[in-house]
């Protein structure tokens, strides 16, 4: 983990309430797709965790949805620096996926799939990506995934764009060797049930410290308690214990 000051290079709206921010700084602690950063914001005691979407040279890209005070503050920032903790979380393991992985992202679970797709394509995997949204106005990053060279399917729940339905509806007709996913918990549960291979999923939980010190993000797994921020946020399908 590293703490650093990052300079805001760009902060633009991708949809009504989803923004893309590019930051310049020391990205050396970021070692795997699926890791996250933790951002300090004025007047807020707790940092806000956001997934790494991309790293290129000394530039870090994050994509965030405005849901409350912290993300609303971020959306207003056009220049200046931010205090960011980098290199948090375990990230996805790229060694287990065979030659035809499928990546499923739902809403703001889409961003971590981008760096993951980029790394898997660099390993010459045949990468399929399923991006799930509620409706057409929420869709973002389809073009960016296509430009990487992935096979891209977009689903919308109301059918206003792409395939009508959930990411799992698109998954059922696919031929894949492994899955990676990130999104809201109901989606993760559905992917867990619908998938016919092993895979990895990234979990979100409200966080205190974000680096393993407060135990605030502990959850029960098949192999005992784990901290989402430290031993997660990515877990293997086989270790997940659904509660409730
Ligand atoms: C590992 C990790 C990676 C994440 N990556 C992204 C990302 O790439 N893009 C993105 O937009 N968001 C991401 N999030 C969620 C993001 O951290 C929260 O949306 C953000 O902290 C909200 O801050 P706020 O001050 O705007 O909202 P708050 O005022 O703190 O909360 C507003 C609303 O959002 C809910 N909320 C806040 N934090 C979380 C959380 N961690 N999980 C679920 N619900 C929450 C609250 O319950 C409340 O209803 C991630 C969370 C985690 C734990
Ligand atoms: S948030 Fe403190 S241990 Fe995970």
* Largest beta sheet: strand ordering: 4-3-7-1-2-6-5
Helix/strand structural class:
alpha/beta
Radius of gyration: 17 Å
Helices and strands, in order, run as EEEEEEHEEHEHEEHEHEEEE
Q: Major β-sheet, in short?
A: 7 strands, antiparallel
* Strand percent estimate: 25-35%
The small molecules bound here are:
flavin-adenine dinucleotide, FE2/S2 (inorganic) cluster
Gap from first CA to last CA: 33 Å
Share of residues in helices: 10-25%
List the uncertain runs: none
Arithmetic mean of pLDDT? 97
Number of strands: 16
Q: What is the global morphology?
A: globular
Quick overview of this protein structure:
This protein has 244 residues and is α/β, with parallel strands linked by helices. It has five helices and 16 strands. The site of FE2/S2 (inorganic) cluster has 12 residues, from loops.
């Amino acid at each position: 983990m590293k703490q650093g000051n990052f300079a805001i290079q760009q902060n633009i709206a991708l949809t009504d309430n989803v923004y893309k921010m590019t930051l310049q700084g020391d990205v050396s602690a970021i070692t795997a797709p699926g890791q996250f950063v933790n951002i300090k914001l004025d007047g807020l005691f707790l940092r806000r965790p956001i997934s790494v979407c991309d790293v290129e040279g000394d530039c870090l890209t994050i994509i965030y949805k405005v849901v409350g005070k912290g993300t609303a503050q971020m959306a207003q920032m056009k220049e200046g620096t931010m205090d960011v903790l980098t290199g948090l979380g375990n990230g996805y393991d790229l060694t287990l996926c065979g030659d035809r992985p499928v990546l499923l992202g739902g809403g703001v679970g889409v961003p971590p799939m981008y760096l993951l797709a980029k790394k898997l394509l660099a390993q010459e995997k045949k990468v399929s990506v399923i991006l799930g949204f509620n409706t057409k106005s929420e869709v973002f990053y389809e073009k960016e995934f296509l430009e990487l060279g992935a096979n891209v399917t977009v689903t919308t729940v109301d059918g206003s764009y792409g395939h009508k339905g959930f990411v799992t509806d698109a998954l059922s007709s696919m031929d894949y060797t492994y899955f990676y996913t990130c999104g809201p918990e109901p989606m993760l549960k559905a992917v867990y049930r619908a998938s016919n291979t092993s895979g990895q999923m990234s979990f979100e939980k409200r966080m205190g410290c974000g680096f393993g010190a407060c135990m605030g993000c502990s959850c029960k797994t098949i192999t005992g308690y784990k901290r989402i921020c430290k031993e997660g946020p990515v877990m293997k399908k086989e270790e997940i214990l659904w509660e409730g």
